[in-house]
Amino acid sequence: MATTALVPIANGSEDIESVTIIDVLRRAGVDVTVASVHEERTITAARQTRITADALISECSGVTYDVIALPGGMPGAENLGASEPLQEQLRAQRDAGRWYAAICAAPAVALEPNGLLEGRAATAHPGFQSRLANQSRVNERVVIDGNCITSQGPGSALEFSLALVEALFGKDKRDEVAAPMVLPT
């Protein structure tokens, strides 16, 4: 059975983070579904890149994914945090012990206010770190705590995405995906 990922996107999602998560997971052979949290599939990212999703978030309800990974960006992270169908999926993901992840503003804006970081260490973009209740690991570029992975921003997007690959498949697969991208293994 294929390994699956849901990457929700919204108007204002961070361009680099959105595309990097999708790209790296697909390089690893993950069946990635990109879902818009809006009523239309095409969103305009933070830097005006237009991205067309595979589905609407409402079409993904009730589907189980091995990982749900949120890009940051503003107001994209706020839009993801306000999407009740997405938040329901994230709560189910957390409760089932499956992976969920967020980068940049999303840990602080989409996860923390919705109770999805309770009892967990996390990081976020430096401009949003003060919004995290647990400050113990905010200075780390990528933080893994239980089944939750968080990261700081566009500059850590490759590390974050490779951490997702390693969580799903192990270090050998992470290294296999990183090598052709000319990244340190």
Highlighted features:
single chain; 185 residues; alpha/beta; Rossmann fold; seven-stranded mixed beta sheet; two-stranded antiparallel ribbon; 6 helices; 9 strands; Class_I_gatase-like; 4-methyl-5(B-hydroxyethyl)-thiazole monophosphate biosynthesis; Prot/Nucl_acid_deglycase
Q: What does this 3D model show about the protein?
A:
The protein is an alpha/beta fold and 185 residues long. It has one domain: Class I glutamine amidotransferase (GATase) domain (Rossmann fold, 3-Layer(aba) Sandwich). 31% of the residues lie in helices and 20% in strands. The strands form two sheets. It has a seven-stranded mixed sheet with strand order 5-2-1-6-7-9-8, sandwiched between helices. Strands 3-4 form a two-stranded antiparallel ribbon. Helix 5 packs across helix 6. The chain is globular, with a radius of gyration of 15 Å. It starts with a strand and ends in a 7-residue tail after the last helix.
Annotated CATH homologous superfamily: Class I glutamine amidotransferase (GATase) domain
Provide mean pLDDT, rounded: 97
**Poorly predicted ranges:** none
Q: What's the order of the H and E elements?
A: EHEEEEEHHEHEEHH
Lateral arrangement of strands in the main beta sheet: 5-2-1-6-7-9-8
Content-based structural category: alpha/beta
Computed Rg: 15 Å
